[in-house]
Structure formats: C-alpha cells, structure tokens
C-alpha cells in the first residue's frame, strides 16, 4: 500500500484546515481492510455490473501537524489507507465554504470519509483504528480499553494543554503572562513526574506493545520535545525520555514523523509591537526640521515599555532575614565525610533558626501499596523531582524502610518559614499523599529522630534502611 505523505507547506500548531474537495457520493461496504471497497452497481437482472472502488478517507492537515501524525501512525499500524489532501494551505483551505461545511469552526485536522466528516484529532485516530477489526491498538480486554482511553485523556489534558500554555504565548499566538507560564511549567512537571513513575516499571503505557494511547501521547510529547522542552527540563524525567525516544524511533512512527531533534533552547518571549503613535515624531520632523532633534528624547520611553515586567517575588523572599543560611548547611552536609554526628549534626543545630525555618516529619499514607522495592524507590524519586520548584527554600531526607514488603516511606523536611509553603502544597500533588507533623523542638525524642534521619542511621527505628535520598 502506498500512502501519500505530501503535506502542505503551511504548518499549524493548533489546527490546520483542508482544501475544498467534493465528498464521495458512492456508498461503501462494511469491509475494513486496507484494500479499497468494491461496489457492484449492476442491476438484479444480471446486466453488466460496473465495479467501483470506494475512495479512501482523506485527511486534511498542514505540514508537521502533530495532530495529523496521530491518524497517520494509527493507519500505519492498522494497515488502513488514508490519503492526505493535496495542496493544503492553512488559512486558505480551511476557510472555504466546502471545508466549513465539514467543520464550522475551521479547525484541522479533519477526516473526510464516504459517510461524513470527522473532526478532533483523537476522534479521527479512534475512527481509523476501528476500521480494523480486533485491532491490537485497542488492547485485548475491557480494562485495557479503559486504560488506553485514560492515558489518551491524560495526554490531552495534562501534557498537551500545559505544553501549549507554555509554548504558544512564546510563539506569539496568545498574550504572554509570566504567572500563567509558571503555572503551566509546574503543572507540566507534575504530569511528567506522574508519567515518569508509571514508565519506571512499564515499557508502554498499556500492556506489552504499542497502543493508541502511546501514539497519542508520543505525538503530544513530540510538540514539546521539538519546540520547547530542552534537555535541562526532560533530564529530570529519565523514564519519560527513554519512552519518547523509543517511540519516535519505531518504524511506523519514524515513517510519519521523520528524524526528531530535541529543542536546544526555550523560544524567547516576543517583543511587544511598537505603538502606532511613535510614527508621529517622523511627521513632525518634515514640518519643522529645526525641531527634529527634540523627538529623539521621546523614543526612550518606548524602549522602556518593551522591557518585560519583573517576575513577582516569591512570598518566602519577603520574610525577615534569617541567621540560618540554607546553602551553608547544604555545603556542610555534602562535605562532611567523617564524624558526621559531631560535625554535621552539631553544625545543623548551631545554624538552625526556629524563627526563620521549620522542621517537618512526613509519613506516606498508603504504605500497603509499597510491595515492590524499586517501584517504591522510584515513587520517592518522582516526589523529589516535583519538589524542584522549592529547592531554594528547602532541604529534605526521604527514607524507604523495611527489609520486606510492604515498605514504609518516611521523611524529614526543612522549610523556609514557620509553615509548609503554600505554593508547594498547591503545586506538588504528592504532598497530599503524606501525613505532615511539625517537629516539636521541646521533645528530645523528636530531635533525636531528626538526627537519625539526617544521618541515615541504620537500623532506623528498629528496621532495615532500604534506601535514603537527599533533597538539597
């Protein structure tokens, strides 16, 4: 089977439309194989019958559209022929009367079928997948099907949506707002952390082979990896990295997407367009040449207006100064190799400022789930990755305790301020998975527990120490 892979020169990151095209008039059979359907148009008296091939579905989309990739890759795996509309031009083809009849909103991609048009990329990919009976892209059981749908929703609402909120304003599609961007990045890190934990023990999203969920997620990841997710961002999520590069190098993916290169830099914020009123001084120069030098002074405010507004300060930066310098403690912790209790632990209590910082114990609420050691350790690792947004204001120790499952997860955290920072509670979903207890400094037993956790004391509270991780 030959698949037309010529796409239009116009690329759309949101949606891209198709050229005007006459819809097929002939009815089709229920045959879902890749071969064109054969229709007998002869009469019942045995007169000469003319055989007509039912046309293949036609996909209207622009060049490089990751939403079109979903359908084309699904078609490759399913052995279904899907043609691409020729000479598609974004902003032209999708505004024709014929196109707007298929989708009044004018978005792309659209799949034109003999039975009518289908829009929304996930719906199109589902349609093409179902053209093949018992398609393994939909798993082998009802629970597989549910999990595939689950991850497709995750790919759309958690990965694609937040990638777009970060990328599109920097491409000039929407107004840029620093607060919105920070929120999107935090949400994307949370999504990647959750995905990283799942992929730590799974090669594919569902089961042991590629499904439609993998196709949809990989195409959504492709947008981020190729446009804005640099190595410095993705390196925090090694299992997501491994998964993405494995997927895009599968033959059916590579045939459609081609070679993929990771973004080397985050696109800059577009400069604001110069206001129209700035052209007035030029006209004044023509009418009064002697006064020409004066308007030059007025050009400076325009440059000042283009300067980006400073990011709002973190509330923790507005707290009264503390005698404890967190970086000094982190250096002491890292550099103390011997006599740890005499040097590092004693140094910690000498530095500690109960007015400027607070200490907290955390205990995982669902230890009964921790039946596999490496999965439990990866869960803790994912939590620490998602805590990156507060690295400047925190120090933490996380312990995995026990020689046999279920394993217990316990932690100690030092936070700037007298309470756990609100932005951490809001942005790091793992926080809700733990019971948080403020350390009572008047209780010597609790202070000794702090010492034991900082020191990675083994055994810890009578049990073997399986793993200890430090956040610094």
UniProtKB/TrEMBL annotation:
Ranges where the GST C-terminal domain occurs: 141-269
Pfam families reported in the protein's UniProt record: EF1G, GST_C, GST_N
Ranges where the EF-1-gamma C-terminal domain occurs: 312-472
CDD domains the record matches: GST_C_EF1Bgamma_like (cd03181), GST_N_EF1Bgamma (cd03044)
MF term (GO), any: glutathione transferase activity
GST N-terminal domain mapped to chain residues: 55-136
Region annotated Disordered, chain positions: 1-42, 267-319
Keywords: Elongation factor, Protein biosynthesis
Comp. bias (Low complexity): 25-37
UniProt keyword Protein biosynthesis, yes or no: yes
Domain of life: Eukaryota
Compositionally biased tracts (Basic and acidic residues): 275-301
Cited function: Probably plays a role in anchoring the complex to other cellular components.
Oligomeric and partner information: EF-1 is composed of four subunits: alpha, beta, delta, and gamma.
Name assigned to this protein: Uncharacterized protein
Provenance organism: Miscanthus lutarioriparius
